[in-house]
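Re: weekly structure request thread

Next one in the queue (357 aa):
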Amino acid sequence: MSGTDENKEVELGIFEKYLTLWIAICIAMGLLLGRFMPSFGQYLDSLKFGQISIPIGILLFLMMYPTVVGISFSDVKKTTKFPKPMLITIIANWIIAPPLMTILANFFLSGNPQFIAGAILLGISPCTAMVLWWIKMARGDLGQGLVNTAINALLMVALYGAEAAFYLGVSSIPVPWDLIVWSVILFIAVPVSLAAITRRTVLPMKGIEWFEGRFKPTLGKISIVALLTTLIVLFSLEGNIILTQPLIVALIAVPLLVHYISMIAITYGATWFANLDYKSAAPSVLIGSSSHFEVAIAVATTLFGLGSGAALATVIGPLMEVPLMLSLVKLLWHTRVRFPRGKTRTHEINERVGLMK
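Done, posted below.
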């Protein structure tokens, strides 16, 4: 391994070693801002384009573009020839997750119909944005992750309203089509298009060595800052409620936590039994166990009001999901040698070497 490769590995190790600490600090900062400077969170929440939070939108874009700039068209094309990971994700997100969350919410939140509604709205909202960043952290197949999230975005347009109405037991749901469409445009179409343009223009001018050794690491630092800033913003929006009403937050958190853990176990097991390699398994597990909180929050606010229990329940979701996704990334990486099952010892050694490069 060259000196450059060794340096990259050392830098990555240091970053992974302290990422939990940086996330914890940013969460604490957000909570304190929300508790002692509630006007800060209220001001940020007032900055919206349609139903999309402008600060969150900018930060998510700054996380997405550096992530997808490393994906080549050939990577995406290859994933379309291997549908098994996509099928696992679709089944997990649209067939298993909704009824599971409905059962858990009614069991743990009995007597609190708005909390139940908010939890269900989270359970039927598969993630189509931030999850790409977690796939990159886990060193999974970003091409597959991009295709999976794009398919989920299209399925959301077709299925979200019907599933929400069915599981909430109402006749119709005011689906925020504009939010879904703008989310697809801003967090998938625009980053992918800009990334493709970047690769097409920068690579011929600067070469692959500069692109991989200088350009991508710089963008990577921007995405890290965007993630940490996103945490500060998210937790500042509800910091006051979290710190002043911890029992309510804990009550709502129970079914959400059980749901996330159950979906992780189901998707992890499914990818293992399907005998996927690690790079294919990681995106399926991460996408299959995460949620699109922006859509859930928008629907809950429209149906029940901004200060409702349903809206509160949808907000608790992403606050729990970030630490869980970080833990899942670490779990996947530490158990990567288990994929695919039944491989030889030589295969394991070669894979370890390949993943380190």
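Residues 1-13, 344-349, 351-357 have pLDDT under 50 and may be disordered. Strands lie at 48-49, 52-53.
Next request, please.
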